[in-house]
Amino acid sequence: MFRSLSPGAVGINVPFEEALKLAAEYGFDALDLNVGKAADIADEQGIDAVRRMYDDAGVSIGGWGLPVQFRTTDEEFEQSLEGFDRLARTAGQLGARWCSTWVMPCSDDVPFSQNFENHTRRLRTAAEVLRAHGCSLGLEFVGPWTMRREKKYPFIFDMPGMLKLCESINTGNVGLLLDCWHWYTSWGSVQDILRLRGSDVVYVHINDAPKGIPEDEQVDNVRALPGATGVIDISGFLAALNAIGFDGPVAIEPFDNELRATSKENPAEGARITAEAMNKVWSEAGLE
């Protein structure tokens, strides 16, 4: 597995070329792919132009987000598929095989069984497009009880439930976007990870949780940089992923307002802080 900078996740909003420079300067192994920008460059200059940009910066190509609206209606889903094949083709040509998205853990409108069927059908369509271009789809479960406790219909919120959805989609290229925050708030364990195969995991997020708050009271968008509080066993989490042979991107997603403000004012400082946190937990997990 390798350390990837996901600029948007830490509040860095700079042009593609500048993001490449930041990833290189602060020692990231990779930069997540802005697939829309990459497809535009490829259309104008050829796919090799995008490869050269990464090669010249000295970083690898990371993952990218699923640009498809599967959470609402069939009509909106079908509309959102327009142009998706172009983006998946670009990513596949670049070897950026790690596409991912998150799944809402509840609904006020759709009962579990219908929600499961909708997700299976729509995500199978997306996964088939990705498979045609050599890409995989990682699905993130959202763990906190606070996200779903007031909703009418619960949905998938933990690893076993998401693995069942992956099995139902049944395209051979769907696995987990495994976020240590959601693993922690859904009462996951290191042993749960060790029961997986490396190929069951597509993409990974790391972060930390505030101190003094029980798991079931944690709020999804109040997190911290990995290693900042020590609440989440990030060393055990990363070591377990390494043990099962996971070989994809690991990115920081902290929902840290202070970091976002810093990144907005000074993107280089935001990248430096992110890299420092990443390298600290990477080392503590025995990965270098």
Commentary on this structure:
- The chain has a 9-stranded parallel β-sheet with strand order 3-2-1-11-10-9-7-5-4. A two-stranded antiparallel sheet has the order 6-8.
- The mean pLDDT is 97.
- It has helices at residues 16-25, 35-45, 47-57, 74-80, 84-94, 112-132, 145-148, 159-169, 180-185, 190-194, 234-243, 257-265, 267-284; strands at residues 2-5, 30-31, 60-61, 64-65, 98-102, 106-107, 136-140, 153-154, 174-179, 201-206, 249-252.
- The protein has 288 residues and is an alpha/beta fold.
- It has one domain (2-284): TIM Barrel.
- The chain starts with a strand and ends with a helix.
Helix content: 40-55%
| Strand portion | 5-15%
Structural class: alpha/beta
From the alpha carbons, calculate the radius of gyration and give it in angstroms. Answer: 18 Å
Question: How far from one another are the termini?
Answer: 11 Å
As residue ranges, the low-confidence spans are none
The DSSP helix count reads: 13
Large-scale geometry: globular
> CATH superfamily name?
Divalent-metal-dependent TIM barrel enzymes
In the residues, how many domains can be counted? 1
